[in-house]
Amino acid sequence: MTEHTPKAVVLLSGGIDSAVCLQQALDEYEKVEAIHIDYGQQTESIERSNAEAQATAHNIDLHTVDYRTVFAEFAEGTIEDKEYDSNHMAEEGHSVGYVPQRNLHFLTSAAAVAEHHTDPGVELVLFHGAQYNDSTDYPDCRPAFIEAAQKAINRSTDQHTVTIETPLIDLDKPEVLTLGEKLGVDWSLTFSCYNDQSGTPCGECPACVERKEAFEKADIEDPVVAQ
Description:
globular; five-stranded parallel β-sheet
C-alpha cells in the first residue's frame, strides 16, 4: 500500500491569526497550500493582497474562493458597507463582526477545494485560526463546533481523512502574537481593520482596538499602525 505525505491547507484571510497558522503549518508539514475566501468584506482588497504576498513569500499555492453571491443573501458584520467604531462593539447580542455560519461555510468549502486539488488517499489537515478571545462572541470558534464540523466533513467523503487543526484556540491575542514572533511571522503582511480599504487601518474599529492592545501587551512593535 502506497503511503501518502499529509497535506496542510491553511484558511488564509490576510489577518494575524491565519498568518500564524500558516507559519505553524509550514513548520510542521512538507506539503502546504492556502485558501483565501472573498465573501464581500469591506477590506477584501488588502486582505487578498496580504494573502497573496504571504503565499508568494513561502512559494505555496493559493486557491481563491468567491463567496460574495452566497453571503450577500444574509449580509451582516464586516460584509456590510458601514462604519465601525470603538463605541459600537456589539449589536443584538453578538459582535459587530459577526457573520452567520461563516466558519461552517469556510471549513466545508476549504475541505471541498482541498479535495479537488489533492489525490485520493492523502490525509488533509485544515488549519483554522480560531483563537481564545473569539470564543466569547463567535460560537463557530469554539472547540465543540470545530469537533462537530470535522465529523461532518469526514462523513461527507470517502476520498480523504480530514483533520481540522486549531493551534491558537487556547491562546489569547497577545499569546498568538508571541507565538507568531517566535515562528517568524511578517506582521507587515497582516491587516485587522474592519473599515479601511486602502491598507491604512482606521485605529477606531473593534479590530483595530484589539490589535493595538494585543501588540502592546505582547511588547511587539506593530509595523501596520493607524496614521
